[in-house]
Amino acid sequence: MAFAIDPPAQPIVPVAGGDPFPVRRIYCVGRNYAAHAREMGHDPDREPPFFFMKPADAVTPDGSEIDYPPATADLHHEIELVVALSAGGADIAEAEALEHVFGYAVGLDMTRRDLQGEAKSKGRPWDTGKGFDQSAPIGAIRPAAEIGHPGSGRIWLSVNEGSRQDSDLSHMIWNIPETIAYLSGLFRLCPGDLIFTGTPEGVAAVGPGDRLDGGVDGVGTLSVRYRA
Ligand code: MN
Question: Around ion ligand 1, which residues have CB less than 5 A away?
C-alpha cells in the first residue's frame, strides 16, 4: 500500500525469548497505591479508578540514555508494573480479564510534575505532564505463560543506588483483573495495548546524569540514565 509520506515506525517492546510486542495504546492508572495517593494530597478510599494515556511511541527501551526532557524543572519517576494485552474487548468480566494478558513488564511513568501540577490547578489535560517523548521507559515483556500473573511481589526503584520507592504489588487498590474490567468499560481494548498499573509511594525528582534502576520481583528489571 502506498502512503502520502513514509509511514511512522511501529512502536515495539522486546519480549524475553520471543518476537517483539507491537504497541497500540498506552493506558495508565492514576493513584493505585494508597500511600502514593496520600503523598499526592488525596484520600485513598476506593473511589473508581481513573486513567490517562501516553502515546505509543513514548516507549523507550531498557538500557537507554535519555535526554532530560524540555520544559520541566521537576521530572519525577514512577515505577510501575505494566500489563501487555494479547486480546481485547469491551466490558470484559473480572473473572475472564487475565485471559486477555500476554505478559508483564517493568515500566517507568515519567512525569513532568510541574506541568502536571499546573494542569491540575487550571483544570487542563495532563498530556504535557504525562505524554511527552520518551516518557515510558519499559523493560522486556515476560510472557504470562512463563511467569504467571503476579498479584504480589516487591516493586522498587533506586536512583544512583539510593532507594526511592519500595513497596509490594499487593498494595494496589485496584488489582489487575479489576483494572482491565473497569478500563474495558471505558474503551474497547485491543491486542497491543499496554496498561501502566500505578506507582507506590516515594515519587521524587530526577536530574541530568541520574541513573534509575527498578524492578518487580518475578517480572524483571529496568535501568535508564538521563544524560548529564
Ligand atoms: Mn503513574
Answer: 78, 109, 199
Report yes or no: 192 and 24 within 8 Å, Cβ to Cβ: yes
CA of 227 to the centre of ligand 1 (A): 22
- Please state whether beta strands 59-61 and 136-138 pair in parallel, antiparallel, or not at all (unpaired): parallel
Give a yes or no: residue 211 inside a domain: yes
Q: How far apart are CA 5 and CA 92, in angstroms?
A: 37
132: CA distance to ligand 1 center in Å?
A: 14
Q: Which of 85, 65, 116 is nearest to 181 (CA)?
A: 85
Query: Per the domain annotation, does 4 fall within a domain?
Result: no
| 5 part of a folded domain | no
> What pLDDT, in 10s, does the model give residues 92-136?
999 999 999 999 999 999 999 999 999 999 999 999 999 999 999
What is the band of 47 on the pLDDT scale with cuts at 50, 70, 90?
Answer: confident
The pLDDT of 158-175, averaged and rounded, is: 97
Q: Which three cell numbers, joined as nine digits, stand for 2?
A: 502506498
Q: Identify the CA nearest to 28 among candidates 191, 179, 220.
A: 179
CATH of the domain at 199: 3.90.850.10
In terms of residue numbers, what domain contains 29?
14-226
Half-sphere exposure of 43 (CA within 13 A, CB side): 4
How many separate domains does the chain show? 1
Within a domain: 72? yes
Measured between its terminal Cα atoms, the distance across the chain in Å is 43
Q: What is the pTM of this model?
A: 0.97
